[in-house]
Amino acid sequence: MTEPKKYRKRPVTIEAMRLPERYPEGVDPSSDGYARNLQAARVYGWVAEHIGTVSPPCDDEPGNGADSGVTIDPADGCLVIRTLEGDMKAELGDWIIRGVQGEFYPIKESIFMETYEEVSDDGQ
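Request: output the structure for the sequence above.
Response:
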């Protein structure tokens, strides 16, 4: 092959949950902080239920411990998902995807919206 060819993603159905967004400038966090914390806890629990947790977070050397899991970075409170490619940090507003092989990873809102559309429970 001397020239690049074009490819299209196969249509696959994934599961996803979104972390709550950051508070807008000037908004009092106490207005809905509890609901945001509950949503973040639901996302964390969903990932942990499927791939477990890891410890210590973010600072152990590659190959030292589990090759998958989820934790919270104590430095900034971000969700960190351990994958075979390394630790991936999910920031507020990111989507967390469970792929076709059960793998989890974060994806930015703009990329998620360009790549995926919501489907019904029957996959349609």
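The helical segments are 33-51, 109-115.
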